[in-house]
Amino acid sequence: MRSGHAVEDYRQLVALSDNPITWFWVGLLILVLLALPGLVPTYTLVMASAVGIAAISAIGLNLLTGTTGLISLGQAGFLSMGAYTCALLMADYGWPAEAAMPAAAFFTGLLSLVIGVPSLRLKGLYLAITTLAFSLIVTHFILYSENLTHGPFGVRIANPTMLGMDIASDVGFYYFVGILLLLVSLFALNVMRTRIGRAWIAIRDHDIAAQVMGINLVHYKLLAFFVSSSIVGLAGALTTLRLRFINVEVFDLLISIEALAMIIVGGLGSVAGSILGAAFIVLLPEGVRILLDFLTPEMKTAYSNYVYEVRGLLIGAIVIIILRVESGGLVGIWAKTKRYWVNWPLPI
Amino acid sequence: MDFLLNITASGLVLGAMYGLIAMAFSVIYKTTGVVNFAQGEMMMLTAYIAWSLGVTLALPFWLMLPLVCVIAALIGALVEYAIIRPMMGEPPFAIIMATMGLAIAIRSLTILIWGVNAEGFDASVKGGLFEIGPVVLFSEQIFALAVFLLVSVGIWAFMRFTRIGTAMRATALDESAALLMGINVRRIHSLAWAISSIIAALAGVCFALAFSRSPSMWFLGLQSFPASILGGLDAPLGSALGGLLVGVSANLSEGYIGQGLKEISGFVIIILVLMIRPYGLFGRRDLERV
């Protein structure tokens, strides 16, 4: 661990990390993830893919909510838009997955501009409610436009392939999600150190002040909506490819709240936080199950009957605790711990 | 014509419930500046408690209702004390998210305790049938309208004439000035939460009587948002009126335009209102300083 580290020029300041140790650990993590299919059972890979998709969607939301400060409760709407665009293009129009996925991301981004326009006048709470309303309207549209969306029956797609990769198999899909997660993370990390990212952060900290400083609110807020929803739409398309059958039940309102819980638990405005938070929330029921197996095997059946409720209870409690105790989330806790040991035995 | 009158009447009944919950939202928002996203869930919880008291324990209705109000007030004050008060001064986003965390926790807790099945709610106010011209209403629907009118008038009179109501309005206007005038702002805050929970509990009981008590009742909370936004989040009586408007328009759009519009017509209204007049019909426009 480094202490007393000085930054000498601007390039160093905005670098992703100028610390070789960090790069070493990241490289090691990627190597372990690459080798994972040989080491663990398939079930773990399936869970890992689920975490990956959730992480991509959380990174998207974090760009909008954590970085730009526009609170969105419409995550379920954006996800279902991406998922349905991808599924319908593949099932009804015979598009290959290679074309349907980017189209889904792009289309979700475009539609998000519809909700982005009211966001120019609204903020905070009102924006949250507008996005919530938008999400409900999307669900309603999907349910009642049977000719276009198959309505309540859902959409089924054939086993997809991607650039010659067999992504219908668990291992293939795991690698595919892994690659996309890496690309999306790099994109988000890099966009945050450009002019655009700094403008978003300025808008989050105080939008009127940012406008006075010469940041074009219309431009940057709409851009934030477009970029964030495209990423979320991509996650939606991935959900389609993973489940191969989707209906509106997959994207109920709880998804929106869970997505916010992910970025709060992980850390607002942080890419690493989005991934950590997504892993935490997705793996929470598994963790509880393992813990219960360990403590009281007889609780097992009771737990499997009420797994959703226990999960909801825990997510609610954890969100409240994180907000009360450590608003930086897991990333904040990590940073504090690190600082504590660097300064030890002096107080922080 | 009969059809129009009948769906308008049942829209008014639905709107009365929306209006009650919208009032609950705005009482909290006006006094404390917090929006309680767990309002629907707190309503569901108290409705379930009312059901347990009224059906399982078979308490008479006139005894059950005040008891539920007391319990609701305690729950509201407890939530304020345990979750909201320690978070005062944090960004609104944090507080909104805390209430959302509370919302999913309560939703899960309710199912854990009472199970997922919907149950009817029998009480002595049920069973009657009233014919007013061509309009036919059940007695529990009349009850809901009566509760709505009483609560609206009660809130208005309370805010207007009582000492505590005046203190509440003062707190809403300027918290630090109210504090300097010797108003116990903390107590006012927990009182606002208690009152709002009572109003929501009454709405919950009305809803459970008219339909059933079921684990999807919390959605009524979200559906009441449009009412509050339409009337103005900081205007309790405006919210009540907004509730009636949203209820009637929900029923009319379902009856005349298309199936399924009932659930979302309110949200279409929200988007329109927020684009044209974000502070609602009766709300106060905010000024912001940099």
Write a concise keyword list for the protein shown above:
heterodimer; A: mainly alpha; 2 strands; B: 290 residues; mainly alpha; 73% helix; globular
How would you describe the overall organization of this protein?
The complex is a heterodimer of chains A (348) and B (290). Chain A is mainly α and 348 residues long. Chain A has a domain at 40-252. Chain A is 75% helix and 1% strand. Chain A has 16 helices and two strands. Chain A has helices spanning 10-14, 20-39, 42-67, 75-91, 97-119, 124-144, 146-149, 170-192, 195-205, 207-212, 217-243, 253-266, 271-295, 300-305, 307-325, 329-343; strands spanning 155-156, 245-246. Chain A has a two-stranded antiparallel sheet with strand order 1-2. The mean pLDDT of chain A is 87. Chain B is mostly helical. Chain B has one domain: ABC transporter involved in vitamin B12 uptake, BtuC, CATH 1.10.3470. Chain B is 73% helix and 3% strand. Chain B contains twelve helices and two strands, in the order H-H-H-H-E-E-H-H-H-H-H-H-H-H. Chain B has helices at 2-32, 39-56, 61-84, 92-114, 139-161, 163-173, 175-180, 185-210, 219-223, 225-231, 236-256, 261-276, and strands spanning 129-132, 135-138. Chain B has a two-stranded antiparallel ribbon with strand order 1-2. In chain B, strand 1 (129-132) and strand 2 (135-138) form a beta hairpin. The model of chain B has no long low-confidence stretch (mean pLDDT 88). Classes of the chains: A mainly alpha (348), B mainly alpha (290).
The description of the largest β-sheet of chain A is: 2 strands, antiparallel
Strand content of chain B: under 5%
Please give the order of strands in the largest beta sheet of chain A: 1-2
Terminus-to-terminus distance of chain A: 16 Å
Q: What is the number of E strands of chain B?
A: 2
- Overall CATH architecture of chain B: Orthogonal Bundle
Could you name the ranges of chain B where pLDDT drops below 50 across 5 or more consecutive residues?
none
Shape of chain A: globular
Number of domains of chain B: 1
Which CATH class of chain B applies here? Answer: Mainly Alpha
Give the quaternary arrangement of the chains: heterodimer
The structural class of chain A is mainly alpha
Count of β-strands of chain A? 2
* Greatest interface (CB-CB under 8 A), with counts per chain: A-B, 45 and 41 residues
CATH topology group of chain B? ABC transporter involved in vitamin B12 uptake, BtuC
Backbone CA Rg of chain A: 21 Å
Average pLDDT of chain B, rounded to a whole number, is 88
Tally the helices of chain A: 16
Question: What's the helix-strand series of chain A?
Answer: HHHHHHHEHHHHEHHHHH
Give the low-pLDDT segments of chain A.
none
